[in-house]
Design goal:
6-stranded mixed beta sheet; alpha/beta
Length: 207
């Protein structure tokens, strides 16, 4: 049961339909013609789901024109209450993931993280953990010798070189620069293409 303070914030402070009606399962979609996907999510406990989050209202105080791409965001967001703690789940949907796409995913996670942190006060909650997910059909990571964009391998000024994208992917960790580099758990969700070839489908269970 979502507590009264959270319900009050949703009812009085948020845009209408920012969250779906609470449920223990959702069918989340990416509807772009370049990469239609459908993810079936089962989730335990109290939760809030913002489907199609990348088209929802964001914090206007973040820079628009910036190399940090702070106006980008992940496709879907879930907030789960488990053992009196709130867990933020950030879901991005892709057809193929490579070094360039991985960099873009990090940008989307960072911007979404900032926006949801601001949402904490609106809802009267505190986020204790962040987990990230990328749905995909294929991967195509490359090493330094074959990189089409050497800038992806340059460390930010004053920071150490981040791990290779493929290593992060395999290790289930994503490093995100929010001023300091933080590590979030990352789950790669393999999708299957439907027989008609129109879309990708998959499922996850969030415990």
């Amino acid at each position: 049961m979502i507590e009264k303070r959270v319900q009050y914030g949703i009812l009085n402070f948020l845009e209408e339909d920012f969250f779906l009606s609470p449920n223990d399962s959702y069918c989340l979609e990416e509807k772009s013609e370049s990469g239609r996907s459908e993810l079936h999510v089962e989730i335990e406990g109290d939760n809030l789901c913002s489907e199609d989050y990348d088209h929802k209202g964001k914090c206007n105080f973040l820079k628009d024109s910036s190399r940090f791409k702070l106006k980008k965001s992940v496709d879907h967001v879930l907030l789960q209450k488990k053992e009196e703690k709130w867990i933020l789940h950030l879901i991005e949907m892709k057809s193929k993931v490579d070094n360039k796409k991985w960099s873009e995913i990090k940008q989307k996670i960072r911007a979404s993280y900032f926006n949801i942190r601001a949402l904490e006060s609106v809802l009267g909650i505190h986020i204790d953990e962040v987990r990230t997910y990328t749905t995909y059909e294929n991967i195509g990571f490359w090493g330094l010798d074959s990189s089409a964009d050497p800038k992806l391998f340059v460390a930010p000024l004053g920071k150490s070189m981040p791990p290779a994208p493929e290593d992060e992917w395999k290790n289930g960790i994503i490093n995100v620069d929010i001023g300091d580099v933080v590590q979030f758990k990352h789950c790669a969700v393999k999708m299957q293409r439907t027989e008609d070839g129109i879309k990708l489908v998959g499922k996850i269970k969030i415990c």
